[in-house]
Amino acid sequence: MNGLMDIEAAIFALILGAALWPLMMRVFPTRGWLLGSVLALFCVAVSISAALFATGTREFAIPESEIVDRPIEVPGEGYVTSDTCRSCHPGEYNTWHQSYHRSMTQVPTPENVLGDFDDKVVELYGHSYHLQRRGDEFWVELDYLSPLLDQQKNYTRVWRKIVLMTGSHHMQVYWMSHAKSKRLEMLPVVYLFEADRWVPRASVFLQSDTEEYHGELGRWNDTCIDCHTTRPQPGKHHDFDLDSQAAEFGIACEACHGPAHKHITANRSFPRRYKLALSDANDETIFHPKQVSEKQSSQVCGRCHGVTQIKKRDYNPFHDLSEFRTPLTKSDEQLWAKAGKELGQDFLDNSYWPDGMIRVRGREFNALINNPCYNHGDKSKRVMSCMSCHVLHQRPEDKRDPLEWADDQLKPGMRTDLACTQCHEDFLDDKRIAAHTHHPVGSSGSACYNCHMPFTTYGLLQSMRSHTVTSPSIASTLETGRPNACNLCHLDKTMTWAAKHLDDWWGIRSPAITEEPNLAASVDWLLRGDAAQRAMLAWAMGWDSAREVSGTDWMTPHLARLLDDPYDAIRFIARRSLMKQPGFSDFEYDFVASADDRKQGVLRALDLWRKQPSAEELKDRLSVLFDENGQLQQERADRLAAQRNDRVVRLAE
């Protein structure tokens, strides 16, 4: 490619000289031919010299076809890559280029590697990682364990080259070459942007076995490639024979618009292009989500943002997703039972709440298709789709910072009631909102999504809104363990309190509640809940809306206890929420430190809290374990914590 550019530069110089020759003849009639000739020869000589110099000093990129130590990009089968789209669609290209979709998989370069490889030595859980940059390459020396050949855990020190990386929004995961093959192995530590540090890869997910070596040999080739590239081809013949390829790394233009070769060929016709531009006709040579039904456009997202069973590969947006993948939902009893046998009940438990509602982020398609707003079947009403709230290209009139848009790729106003009132226009009336919500208009309690899309999915160290629209239900909480919207906001209230208001306001009857007397649901979940409940409530104690409604003076000792939780992720979230407490903004604590250091962190947090004059405000806060004198009911808290649900949780984020 660069050689072609050098030739083009020389041709341009020759044309420039030839164009200037007549001008020289006109300006200098007697000597113009000589000046023109000299100028033309000079331009050509300079360009050729520059090209030869560049050729001699440039490090030419190795052609993809010759790369043997990582998966490669191979356009074909109608795919032409995003660079081809750029010339005709520069605006769309630029907004896509600013999105995190684009950078989901990248070949490491000095410009895109965000982790610290500056001769950095990282010590975590008994293993040492020496991270080093060598020119434009990135290397790591680590304790290497062959998971197939060595069952005794005899580690050896080896240097491995980083050849690929995934992620660019919350963290970067790095993949090492394995035995000069395209079969990749994960670097067991990742760079976590929020903490600005290296942490064990397993620590950023909700799982208990974080101290184990997690190299996950071949996982990129088997799994990650499916949703982190465009037109993925795992190329798996058997575990050691892999020829993994993709049309393009990252989620590129053709991932959403389909293979573009026919589109480009057809639109080389000038009359055709402008006829389409001046009419409302669809260009059938390319897939455009706005030109198809809401359900078909959502399938494009659902290919990756869903828990699905693969029937066959090579799906592209022109296809019906159901022919290639089947969304796994509990309503399909036969498929659900089959999944339980093939994937294991643990997989279902760690992907779904017991009633079948999705519980992990990144799988919003499964949540969407269980929505009444999606399934109502009334042709006179709009259908809720991914594009109801999200937009894949930031529009010129959208003046938000591109990073703000890229965070969730939401349309303007979609963090407000507009997300719902764009369809439910009858709730644009403030009086009706107040009567319906029983909360002041404009308050967090009157926001549609706080009640109907509460934070009951989890992933990447935070809770996220459910994408299944429901109404608050204590019965569902008792049946599934899923926190309800009322107690996620009113963290200092009991479930009995929430049930009474649901009954008084909307006639929602609740079954008998057998809860610890006068104990806030949030504190109960923090002390006796399982790891998923503890993670969600630790996050909720950092949620500004809940903090404003519930007060914060009582939260510190409960969050401090979680600094010694068995799960790394919970400790990280608890510390994040704790840092919002008065006097804790610079609280030093390492969530992957040794058990002794973590216990010391708990003691330091409690000591700092006790020095703050808060007893007066805490009097009679019985539901959050403070007595009539404002003293923490330590014995009761310890007794409840001893009943903690220690079932193994490994959410399939």
| Tally of individual helices | 28
What's the alpha carbon Rg, rounded to whole Å? Answer: 30 Å
Biggest sheet character: 9 strands, antiparallel
Portion in beta strands: 5-15%
Give the overall form.
globular
The number of distinct β-strands equals 18
Structural class: alpha+beta
The portion of residues assigned to helices is 25-40%
Mean pLDDT: 89
Low-confidence stretches: 1-6, 54-58
Q: Separation of termini?
A: 40 Å
Give a verbal description of the structure.
By secondary structure, this protein is of the alpha+beta class. It has 28 helices and 18 strands. Strand 17 (457-459) and strand 18 (462-464) form a beta hairpin. The protein is globular and about 105 Å long. The protein starts with a helix and ends in a 12-residue tail after the last helix. Residues 1-6 and 54-58 have low confidence and may be disordered.
Summarize the structure.
The protein is α+β, with helices and mostly antiparallel strands and 653 residues long.
Name some characteristics of this structure.
653 residues; 9-stranded antiparallel sheet; alpha+beta; disordered N terminus; globular; 38% helix
